Amino acid sequence: MALSRVRLFASHGEGTRLLPQASRLVELPYSSFDDDDEDEDDNMAEQDPGVWYPEPPKLSPFSHCVRYLAFFWNLLFLLLGLLTLAVGVWGLLAKSPLPGGVPLSSDPMLLFVLAGLGASTVSLAGCLGAFRANPCLLRFFLGAVLAFGGLEVLGGLLLLLARRRLRDALQDLLLLCLLRYQDDPDLQFLVDEVQRSLQCCGLESYRDWESNPYFNCSAPGVQACGVPASCCQDPLENGSVPNIQCGFGVLGLGAAAAGAMVHTGGCGAALGAWLRGQAGAIATGAAVLLLLEAVGALMALRVLRDITAVRVWE
């Protein structure tokens, strides 16, 4: 604090006698009326070691590194979210208008749209928050990541506690896919991939395709009393192009004759066995996802703490 020195003299009523030498100089607090310039204040501050002048906090190289890493980290997930969103929008536009009057809310591609939109929004907030040093965006990013992480943990616990209900739900889903096999290209692709990779046909057996109005034996089309080509044991039939008619008429044959042409086992049991075999990989993937979210949250928290420290000093 700058000090001003004022020489005091006696009042007019007491003559001209000066005050003692020790009391001639009195130090008064600095006021806005003093005319000392900044150079004199700096010189006096250097001469008075008892006065402490705070310096602005400086970010360490590690803090700068964390900030840049948080920016590129969120930029990567932003690109992945936009890619997922683009795939979902492309899937919806490629089928517009939806066949058979299928409502938009039941379309599987809507999951890609919602997942991509959510991931890109949260990643954009983290990206801009780290780049612009915006505390509001960083707090929004942290809250969204914590919410998603909590929902994922809660979903995992519910899956562990309700495994039987999950199996029933998967069976109901497969049955719905069988019924709407010809109505939705996405469901058709999903069913074909499951039957082809697991070498199965139908839900419980290949006879489940009788519930489909296009493959029922009373149907008027050429697919009546048949099954999809993905049920065939050898859809290529020693050729290079799959024979889409390899499953025609299978439902009208006996079990032995049908077993020589198509896979007769159902996909329900095969899918359950596959999920049990992939339990370790699924758990590892979930743990990696939570770890990635935790790393992003910790970096955003460090950047937010540095920003808050600088703004408090200012």
Strand arrangement across the biggest beta sheet: 1-2
Structural class: mainly alpha
Number of discrete helical segments:
9
Beta-strand portion reads under 5%
What is the terminal separation in angstroms? 19 Å
Which regions have little confidence, pLDDT < 50, spanning 5+ residues?
1-38, 44-51, 98-102
pLDDT average, as an integer?
77
Radius of gyration: 38 Å
What is the helical fraction, as a range of percent?
A: 55-70%
The general outline is: elongated
Number of strands: 2
In N-to-C order, the SSE pattern is EEHHHHHHHHH
| Biggest beta-sheet profile | 2 strands, antiparallel
Structure description:
This protein is mostly helical. The protein is 56% helix and 3% strand. It has helices at 38-47, 61-94, 109-132, 135-161, 163-179, 185-198, 255-259, 267-277, 279-313, and strands at residues 3-7, 25-29. The two termini are 19 Å apart.
Topology:
Elements: E1 3-7, E2 25-29, H1 38-47, H2 61-94, H3 109-132, H4 135-161, H5 163-179, H6 185-198, H7 255-259, H8 267-277, H9 279-313
Antiparallel strand pairs: 1-2
Briefly say what this structure is.
By secondary structure, the chain is mostly helical. The chain is 56% helix and 3% strand.
Q: Top keywords for this entry?
A:
314 residues; mainly alpha; elongated; disordered N terminus
